[in-house]
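Q: what sequence does this backbone want?
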């Protein structure tokens, strides 16, 4: 495993609050997160999670190399991508699924960059963003975790992800860290 990507929308802050702070201080991988946030807002997510998490939390920067054990949030109004060498890239290309940042953009670029070394996680949300990206991760041989729609504040996004990638592990949000650690141990 080389990296973890996470996508969330409606209800995502609450779901991420159960996943990210539970990661141990020695978590070995970079974690890239896209949450649908309004374009003209400061990224309050970084401050919110920096105070709760045991590993560093930051806003992703263009051309930044990925560091293990760091959580990167996509900045408002920019797509977050991973380039072939594992460097981050930001893009102001058109919204995808009515969103910028879009989960599919991150997931598809990370699948290209990391292939079998990638774990993708789709959490709660009210549209289908993340479904095609998770399909790309599965097609590249990566691992997929989808929040159990029954435990999601809004089940639309997890249901779409499961339809696109039916072999995903379906996990209640409070058990995602354990599922991720089991994947890394394999």
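A:
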């Amino acid at each position: 495993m080389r990296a973890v990507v996470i996508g969330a929308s409606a209800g995502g802050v609450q779901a991420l609050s159960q996943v990210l702070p539970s990661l141990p201080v020695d978590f070995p991988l970079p974690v890239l997160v896209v949450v649908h946030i309004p374009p003209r807002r400061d990224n309050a997510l970084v401050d919110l999670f920096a105070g709760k998490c045991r590993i560093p939390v930051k806003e992703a920067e263009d051309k930044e190399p990925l560091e293990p054990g760091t959580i990167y949030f996509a900045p408002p109004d920019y797509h977050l991508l991973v380039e072939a060498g594992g460097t981050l890239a930001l893009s102001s290309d058109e919204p995808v699924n009515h969103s910028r940042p879009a989960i599919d953009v991150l997931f598809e670029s990370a699948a290209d960059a990391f292939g079998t070394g990638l774990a993708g996680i789709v959490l709660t949300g009210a549209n289908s963003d993340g479904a095609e990206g998770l399909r790309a991760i599965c097609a590249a041989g990566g691992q997929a975790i989808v929040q159990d729609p029954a435990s999601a504040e809004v089940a639309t996004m997890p249901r779409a992800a499961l339809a696109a990638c039916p072999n995903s592990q379906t996990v209640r949000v409070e058990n995602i860290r354990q599922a991720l650690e089991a994947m890394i141990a394999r």
